Amino acid sequence: MPDRIMFTMGDIASAEGALSAGCRYFGGYPITPATEIAEWMALRMPEVGGSFVQYEDEIASITSVIGASWTGAKSMTATSGPGVSLMLEAIGLAVMTETPLVLVNIMRGGPSTGQPTRGQQGDVMQPKWGSHGDYQIIALTPASVQEMFDQTVQAFNLSERYRVPVFVLADETVGHMRERLVIPDEKDLKLEYRKLATGDPADFLPFKPDDDLVPPMALLGSKYQFYATGLTHDYRGYPTDKEDVQLELVARLNNKILHNADKIIDLERFMLDDAEIAVVAYGTPSRSARKAIKGAREAGIKAGMLRLKTVWPFPEDAIADLASEVKHIIVAEQNFGQVYYMVKASAAPTPIHLMAKPAGMPQLPHEILDKIREIDSL
To answer: For residues 130 and 88, is the Cβ–Cβ distance under 8 A?
Structure first.
């Protein structure tokens, strides 16, 4: 076990968070700027009795994580945007088979190879819309080294609770910055574990949900026999093309997340009580926004911030409430506008202003402060 207090980078904090959450399988493939997670897992997994495997590509990595999860192991992979592009078909499989897993995406500049050593937030839509079909996903957005640890633990808890893939979306700056990390005692982590099948194997229906819309999970090699497929399936797991089964299944896969959105969504309100201008931000830009808002307050401008620690499911109600409280909303993100369009759809008719910067570096505090002053002068 490393020291409880470390000065380390976000990637390593995420790896330690996974280990503290009980992750005992990591399947990965190197990619900048996420490689340090794999390197740290290769070092630490043998020390905790887990397994690390480096595969030939990202497709093999994610499918191995799905398989490991079905044996009962808390499982994870880590990559960046180009790797996620290759993993998305398997993410759809994991959604349909209700496979718990965690995928950490350290976002870099794109499209394509883009800027491997520069940060961007161009992958926000990828988890939600990258695979095909109607589905819901959970995606968390840490903004510090400590949150890289904390939200990776949270990602495992949510994945286990809802039997769904959970993304940790961190831009490269958060992944590579170095800050103080405090690793809590295990008893303080409040870890969650998937519900396992019980009862007579003869009566077992592997995809029949409980009242919470989540079915208990049988494991490969257990006394329960079952069939898991990406095809539309009934409670037995058997493929079918019946319309009513498809409707019920897809509705349940969506509703087990949507009906619990208030329990999943995590937000921070900063100086919003009397704000007239609100900044909506996540990841590194939220760090700059915090300083900019303090500067605005010193200049007599009533500014505040709603920081998104969860982007999926999207906090539509919170954005609508924010729009009713303020005169203007600024969305600051390292792309040409992804969360911006979600905010715009939720906050109309309040004026929404995009502060886009997909150039490999986040908005600086003085840039956000200048934007706040510009809006205040309207």
So the answer is: yes
Read off φ and ψ for residue 310, nearest 5 degrees.
-130, 130
At which residue do the structure tokens 């995606």 appear?
A: 139
| 8 Å CB contact between 332 and 289 | yes
Q: Whole-model pTM?
A: 0.97
Cis status, amide bond into 349, omega within 30 of 0: yes
Ranges in the chain, pLDDT < 50: none
| Residues 172 and 278 sit within 8 Å (Cβ to Cβ) | no
| Domains of the chain listed by start with CATH number | 5-188 (3.40.50.970), 268-376 (3.40.50.920)
Burial class (CB in 10 A: 0-12, 13-18, 19+), 360: middle
Sheet holding 328-333, edge to edge: 267-270, 303-308, 277-281, 328-333, 352-356
Reduce the DSSP state of residue 170 to 3 states and report it.
strand
Q: What is the pLDDT of residues 301-341, one digit of tens each?
A: 999 999 999 999 999 999 999 999 999 999 999 999 999 99
- Count of other CB atoms within 10 angstroms of residue 234: 16
Rg (CA), the chain: 21
Q: Residue 188 in contact with residue 57, Cβ under 8 Å?
A: no
Query: Where would I find the beta strands (DSSP E) of 172-308?
Result: 178-182, 267-270, 277-281, 303-308
**CA-CA-CA-CA dihedral for 197, 201, 76, 228, to nearest 10:** -120
Kindly tell me the number of DSSP H helices and DSSP E strands found in the chain.
13, 15
Cβ burial of 2 (10 Å; 0-12, 13-18, 19+) is middle
* CB of 308 closer than 8 Å to CB of 322: no
Helix (H) or strand (E) holding 15: helix 10-20
- Give the tens place of pLDDT for each residue, 6-35: 999 999 999 999 999 999 999 999 999 999
C-alpha to C-alpha distance for 77 and 100, rounded to whole angstroms: 12
Cβ neighbours of residue 169 under 8 Å, at least 6 residues apart?
105, 107, 121, 123, 124, 127, 139, 140, 141, 283, 311
